[in-house]
Design goal:
Helix content is about 35%, strand content about 15%. The protein is α/β, with parallel strands linked by helices. It has a single domain (about 1-230), classed as TIM Barrel, CATH 3.20.20. An eight-stranded parallel β-sheet has the order 3-2-1-8-7-6-5-4, covered by helices on one side. Helix 6 (about 130-140) crosses helix 7. The structure holds phosphoenolpyruvate.
Length: about 230
């Protein structure tokens, strides 16, 4: 299983360091095959040393350096030895207005750099209410321009209506969607959307769930550890 913590616009460098120190102390208890990722905000990057946690970024601009005011490129990530990135998160698609074309450009750039890419896809409630075929049509459209055969590629299925809402997709919905997605991309497949201590067990037991991407419940070390150490 993969356990990935997405801090979004939460935590500072100081609190991220405290978080990682506390997390690290407990990770000897995790299953040795499990992988743990933390995606802090860009300003919290630092020289964290850990064999148990991979630090990734929530976003970067697809460029080495240059005139892109307010953005961070490869040169800035390299200073912190970052080679893992989240691409396609619904908050970047919907709030920051990233188009599929731009997302594909970003994907290509970081693929060329050999980054591990956690690529997020997900449908709105309106699409979910139309049934699985409509959901799959939408999810497949989010692979447009994306090389799904890339080796260092993990997919995160995150229904938008389940992100930060407390409403998790049902076991049946996750099962059906993940089974259908595995036929499209045979890559590790994470589920994301209000994963927490009370539902991790049933979600982790679903056959084609290879891990979870967690927002709210990852913000405190204790609640994230509840997920990582649930078994
Ligand atoms: C996310 O935004 O990736 C996410 C899954 O958030 P939450 O766990 O808070 O629903």
């Amino acid at each position: 299983m993969i356990y990935a913590a997405n801090f979004k616009t939460n935590h500072t460098r100081e609190t991220t360091r405290e978080y990682l120190t506390k997390l690290q102390l407990q990770l000897f208890k995790k299953n040795p095959n499990d992988k743990v990722y933390v995606f802090p905000p860009l300003t919290a990057l630092d020289d964290y040393q850990s064999n148990d946690v991979t630090i990734g970024v929530q976003n970067a601009y697809p460029v080495k350096n240059g005139a892109f005011t307010g953005e961070v490129g490869l040169e800035q990530l390299a200073e912190f030895n970052i080679n893992t990135i989240l691409i396609g998160h619904s908050e970047r698609r919907d709030i920051l207005g990233e188009s599929q074309e731009f997302i594909a450009k970003k994907f290509d750039f970081f693929k060329e750099q050999g980054f591990e890419i956690i690529y997020c896809i997900g449908e709105s409630l309106e699409i979910r209410e139309q049934g699985l075929d409509a959901v799959m049509e939408h999810l497949v459209s989010q692979f447009e321009g994306i090389d799904t055969t890339y080796d260092n590629f993990v997919v995160a299925y995150e229904p938008i209506w389940a992100i930060g809402t407390g409403r998790t997709a049902s076991v049946e919905e996750i099962t059906q969607t993940h089974n259908a997605l595995k036929k499209v991309v045979d890559k590790p497949l994470l589920y994301g959307g209000s994963v927490k201590g009370s539902n991790i067990k049933e979600i982790a037991e679903i056959e084609n769930v290879d891990g979870v991407l967690v927002g709210g419940a990852s913000l405190k070390t204790d609640t994230f550890l509840e997920l990582v150490l649930h078994s």
